[in-house]
Design a protein that fits this description.
Order of helices and strands: HHHHHHHHEEHHHHHHHHHHHHHHH
Structural class: mainly alpha
Shape: globular
Oligomer: single chain
Helix content: 55-70%
Strand content: under 5%
Number of strands: 2
Strand order of the largest sheet: 1-2
Largest sheet: 2 strands, parallel
Distance between the termini: 61 Å
Number of helices: 23
Length: about 500
């Protein structure tokens, strides 16, 4: 293993101000990321409770900052243990420690930037619209055979992880190092590829799309630069994933208490009961269940909560979070090094928190409690339905732009006006200028041709559909609500 082939300064385009070391290039990436509009928008996208006015409840930005800190902690533990073994130099990590940590931190900060307004229900709304409206438009224009094409299959799945890669490379054009972007690629299949079967060697790494057809060439160039084999991950992506899993399995329950969906007594009881009943479902031995790792921590937290005169719920969550983050971060760092060759190669087909033991059972228990008692709460479900209606409504409003023919939209995008199509013209004016420029750059070679094949017309429509999806998915929760109200004359 030689990390010099993974931690490199290569970018898609040469930097206008190249740095001398990998660590310095990571500082450059940090500046590009933190100053990006994509990160700023995270502060107005909520984690679980859309349109939440309570500042104590997590936004995507505050969640990402927590993930960033956990990712930093795990990275430092890994490097500390490697140093204790005297292997920093032999692994090619000597002098790259700061860059290693920074790459993980910034990946943690950026991991949610591709998520649409209203979280996973926003994703569902986009996918529902694609299968209901977008499919019909493509079939009406090009016949049923189009449904077998890469570009059609690609549009039928919106995935926040893939959108993040598109946002960084194609939309924001941050030109981050390949090493930095590779940290974000949790899933290693393109959106047009079929999901593998459970017995497939790549089942875990390919359970969701990691990038779109539009970024396929970029990801291929990235993998070639960093010597990442087909279907494999970048090693630091495992750390980013673990940090996210550790953070949100606790944070969602913390927010639920702040919102009074659960009180401490209810949460404590749910944790203990779920632990006891859930072990057999994960294939965990009864001996591990009986040792009661998580119930013991929860009991310590409950005792501390009882001794507090003020802010009892904070005492409970703080005790639970402090102990779990410390234990789970150490566990993730050990798993990274215990499976070092597979992690380095990107062939480990599970997360660092897997392993059928007490730590894996603890995270799965907390996730299950959140699903059962938080995500199914009436308040959360009503907010999700509201978000679904807003996203679906916006996409339906902009759908007439997709119903235009190739020549009509060529005139509209070239001249910024289409006579006799006043509604479509105004809808086009409402789109983001940055995203319209990207669409024009993607289709210019098609517009410059005299004779256009049906396949090329379908390709143009692909980029046109991406234009609308990019615009709506890039909105904040509040802006999406206001835009929907404005365009539908509500309120």
């Amino acid at each position: 293993m030689d990390y010099n082939v993974k931690l490199k300064r290569d970018r898609f385009r040469p930097s206008t101000a190249p740095k001398e070391t990998f660590d310095d290039e990571m500082e450059s990436d940090r500046g590009r990321a933190i100053n990006s509009a994509a990160v700023r928008r995270l502060q107005q996208k909520t984690q679980v409770f859309p349109l939440e006015s309570n500042s104590a409840v997590r936004s995507r930005l505050t969640h990402s900052l927590e993930v960033q800190q956990v990712g930093r902690f795990i990275s430092k533990l890994i490097l500390k243990k490697i140093k204790q073994r005297g292997e920093l130099k032999t692994l090619g990590l000597d002098g790259k420690e700061d860059g290693f940590i920074s790459a993980v931190e910034i990946a943690c900060l950026l991991h949610d930037i591709g998520n649409p307004p209203f979280g996973h229900f926003g994703e569902e709304a986009i996918n529902h619209w694609s299968k209901k409206k977008l499919k019909k438009i493509f079939v009406d224009k090009f016949g049923k055979s189009i449904t077998d094409s890469e570009i059609f299959k690609d549009l039928m799945i919106f995935e926040g992880n893939a959108q993040a890669i598109r946002l960084l490379h194609s939309i924001q054009e941050l030109n981050l190092t390949f090493s930095q972007v590779a940290c974000l690629i949790k899933y290693t299949r393109s959106a047009h590829e079929s999901k593998p079967g459970e017995n497939d060697d790549f089942f875990y790494r390919k359970k969701k799309p990691g990038y779109y057809f539009s970024e396929k060439d970029y990801v291929s160039k990235l993998c070639n630069s960093l010597q990442i084999d087909l279907g494999c991950r970048f090693p630091l992506a495992y750390i980013m994933e673990a940090a996210d899993d550790i953070s949100y399995c606790i944070a969602d329950l913390d927010d639920a208490i702040d919102k009074k969906i659960l009180n401490v007594e209810q949460l404590h009881e749910a944790i203990c009961n779920t632990w006891q009943s859930f072990g057999s479902e994960l294939g965990v031995s009864q001996d591990i269940v009986d040792k009661g790792y998580l119930p013991r921590i929860a009991q310590d937290a409950y005792v501390r909560c009882g001794s507090e005169t003020h802010n009892k719920s904070h005492a409970y969550i703080l005790t639970l979070r402090t102990k779990l983050i410390n234990d789970l971060a150490n566990y993730a760092s050990d798993r990274y090094l215990d499976n070092h060759q597979a992690v380095f190669d990107g062939s480990l087909d599970e997360s660092l928190l897997d392993g059928n033991d007490e730590y894996n059972l603890a995270t799965e228990t907390l996730k299950t409690v959140a699903k059962k008692y938080v995500f199914s709460a009436k308040e959360v479900e009503r907010l999700e339905l509201k978000g679904h209606a807003i996203i679906s409504g916006l996409l339906n409003i902009y759908t007439p732009l997709l119903e235009l023919g190739f020549d009509e939209f060529k005139v509209l995008s070239t001249n910024d006006v289409l006579k006799s199509y006043q509604v479509e013209t105004r809808l086009y004016h409402g789109l983001s200028n940055k995203q319209k420029r990207m669409y024009i750059d993607s289709t210019k070679y098609l517009f410059d041709k005299e004779n256009i094949s049906e396949h090329e017309q379908a390709l143009e429509l692909y980029f046109r559909a991406r234009l609308l999806i990019d615009y709506v998915s890039g909105m904040t929760d509040r802006f999406a609500l206001e835009e929907y109200r404005s365009l539908s004359a509500i309120g």
